[in-house]
Amino acid sequence: MTTFAIVDLETTGNSSSKKDRIIEIGVVVMKENKISNEFSSLVYPDREIPPFITSLTGISEEDVSHAPLFSEIAQEVYDLFNDAYIVAHNIEFDLGFLNAELNKCGYPSLYNPIIDTVELARILMPSSPSFKLGQLSEQLNFGHDRPHRALSDAQVTSDLLIHLLKLLRNLPERTLKHLLKITSKLKSRLDLLLDEAINKARYHAAQEEKFHIWYGVAVKKVNLLSSDEHAISSAYETWINEAYTGEQGLKQFINGFESRKGQKEMSDIVYQSLSKNQHALIEAGAGTGKSIAYLLSTLYYSIINKQRVIISTHTTALQNQLLYEEVPKLANLFDKPVQAVLYKGRSHYISLVHFSYELENSQYDNYDEALAKAMILVWLTQTTTGDIDEIQLPSNGQQFWHKVSAEQSGKSVNLKSEQSYFYWAEQKALHADIIITNHSILCLDLISAESHLPPFEKVIIDEGHQLESVASRYFGMRLNYKELQKQLSYISENFSERYVKFLSYDMNPLLDRNKAAVEEAKEELSQLSKFIFNRMRRSRQSSTSKSDVGRMQYSLQELKDQSFLSTAAEMTNRFLSKVQRIQRGLESMVDQLLPLTTSSNDEKVKIVLSRLDHFIQVCEKMVTQLSTYFTDLQQDEAKWIEMDGDGLNHSIYMFSEPVNLNQLLQKRLFTQKQSVILTSATLTTNQSFSFMRKTLGFNKTDNLIQVNIPSPYSFDENVNLMVPNDFPNVRDDPEEFIYSVSEAIYSMAYITKGRMLVLFTSYDMLKKTYFLLKEMINPEEYMVFGQGVSSGSRDRLKKNFQAFDQSILLGTSSFWEGVDIPGDDLSCLVIVRLPFQPPGQPVQTLRDKHVKDKGKNPFMEYSLPEAIIRFRQGFGRLIRSSTDRGVVFVCDQRIVESKYGKYFMSSIPNIPLTHDSTTKLLKRMEEWL
């Protein structure tokens, strides 16, 4: 009978080595899924309990003042673990503290078999959005009344363990056997549990019918493609009216649906554009319901004409919203299932043939590789897409993923594509009514000779204001030192003997030569990076600027130092000569292995060949991108280098972007496709589309529809705009300006109870404000989160901000758009500076020269309209629903006092403006809110 002792501890801190102590212990003993014993005790720690721990756990100094010392309960605790698995959620923490306390009392450390429920949850619930105990218990509907109390946490952990063991026993025999081979590298002792599960699985053959066995791996059965034909008998006008107003329309499938002002108008414009092969620019203000508007007419058009339409978005969140929320609702309006697919690049999909190959080499795994394999094995019994975005691999899991993604399967080697998730994604896309993708894949498709999307003639580009910035990256170049070194390391892995050990002859001399070539290339790259870093840091380039994440930028076109350029070009050529040597080594391996594909049916040869083929292409791309980087400095392409200020590993970033992207988009997109529809809440400046037309490359002769659909929200009633007239001039005294911003934020926080988003244009200014606020604010009053300062992604920071009642979020760059914080979570938006590009940006500098050469004003032509679009995006963070209400506080007086301020004001809804002293503004804010 298997016994589990589930333990949880509350402690004064994170480290027993730093004299942190246990303040509470809870143990649940379980046999055959039934609790046989429970133990709980507060513990006197013989040291102070920090306020944060008291706040987290609710355990105070008074609570433990009469509690026993650990030594007084040590024997009772020790006996609980006799002949049992020790189980904990993050076991290294709990077992580390437990053994430290036992050792202090003269007891030996516990060396029982262990199970870490964090690790086990990652393996058996790989698609879970979080592996924290509280979030898992909420997800699984476990009662968890007293989180961060030892016995309650131990009880929930025992519920979780029961759930996980049930999942384990329901896995197919093939998966269990693969897990058994890799379990020795994991923390948890799973071999006996797996043996037991394997024995039971042998007697449940019916369960195996749910799975295919592809390349020796159990995968969930994939449904064949539907061949149902759609039938729509109604004309468009009749059908769309029924959808919006009829009893059998949207109101039947969307709770509380009311057709919004402008929504049907947008549907009609989209349908007209698709039907008459016209391009369109449609600005749809917040609350229009634009995604439903364009999806309705697009689905009707696609189905009635049997012609697929591409929908491209900038953010993953919008893609998921369209596919999983909007399309299923609208599909009810059609007689047959709607075929809508999310289409991604090869690198997102697992290659089963490569994964199977890696499973055979599991004896070489480190911990992260073993955990990644275990997670993927279980995930393959659940997924129908094979898209890695469904799971969260461990921190170094990406190093394993590159070996098993479909990107490794080059087209030169046939690897049974019918048993491939990427093949299925392609097939689904070919039969789809609409294909949802992102701007990156769309742009990649436009620039590449090889297709990255199924053939299409019509495309809707949502978040269309972002198309230019994404296209600039794809029509240009982005390389950095770390990424190049990583690619060289990936190449070097192919020269390991483990990957060719199946050969009957010795390839080691060639492998050794190829390894040496990689090491030489790495050294040349390191020398090049150090040279550039040190020379740039010493340079006195007048046009040095900073990127939006605070890296120093150096424009190659602005450099006067010809000796630097010639030396950098020479060192780059030395590096590339080593890369070409690596390429020849890869080609030599191909030459030796290729004859074996005709004489042998062994898939291993084909797998190795496909990897070699992939990395030959990687080498070719490096040579193509870098060979003329320092020599061909044309004025139609900006080239620049960026460096982190701290100079970690002398890491450099190399960029290039076209200056006149409009000509490229006109040639590759607007003249090639029948209908391109761009929509966004921000496509106009000063009520005109002229800037967007010019930037994106629309000709005056283009058959172009332009429509502005205003927001139905009552901005005049729900928003107040406030601008202080007593802030110091940022140019004269930047430090005093930052201090004034911080003081204003601090004062406003009391009025708004936190719930503030502060938008910066400068990462340096954000950091300085963050640390000033941390000095001013009592951490028990307000939580302050800063992008790039606080740990976590943009989404994580947003969730943390929303999780606390009183919090302030400071953001730059990506926070100006795409961040939705609806309702009471946000009541004040602070815009620190009008979002003009910082001076000296490389692309902007060259573009300004071009505009001046034509006798025009670059500020009015580009800088001002760009800033207005960005300002409107930032402004849009505040009001995300008809009931939202709040204040926009703009610290930059130029919006009121400069000649161009009126262009900003005319580009946002007509709302009350107060321009007064900070003191009076705060008083008005308090009254209004």
UniProtKB/TrEMBL annotation:
Enzyme class: hydrolase
EC numbers on record: 3.1.-.-
Listed GO MF terms: DNA helicase activity; hydrolase activity
Binding site for ATP: A284, G285, A286, G287, T288, G289, K290, S291
Entry keyword annotation includes ATP-binding: yes
PROSITE patterns per the UniProt record, alphabetical: HELICASE_ATP_BIND_2
Keywords tagged on the record: ATP-binding, Exonuclease, Helicase, Hydrolase, Nuclease, Nucleotide-binding
Pfam families: Helicase_C_2, RNase_T
Coiled-coil ranges (or none): none
SUPFAM superfamilies attached to this UniProt entry: P-loop containing nucleoside triphosphate hydrolases (SSF52540), Ribonuclease H-like (SSF53098)
Domain Helicase ATP-binding per the UniProt entry, residue ranges: 249-514
Family listed: Belongs to the helicase family. DinG subfamily. Type 2 sub-subfamily.
Summary of the function given for this chain in its UniProt record: 3'-5' exonuclease.
Protein name per UniProt: 3'-5' exonuclease DinG
Lineage: Bacteria, Bacillati, Bacillota, Bacilli, Bacillales
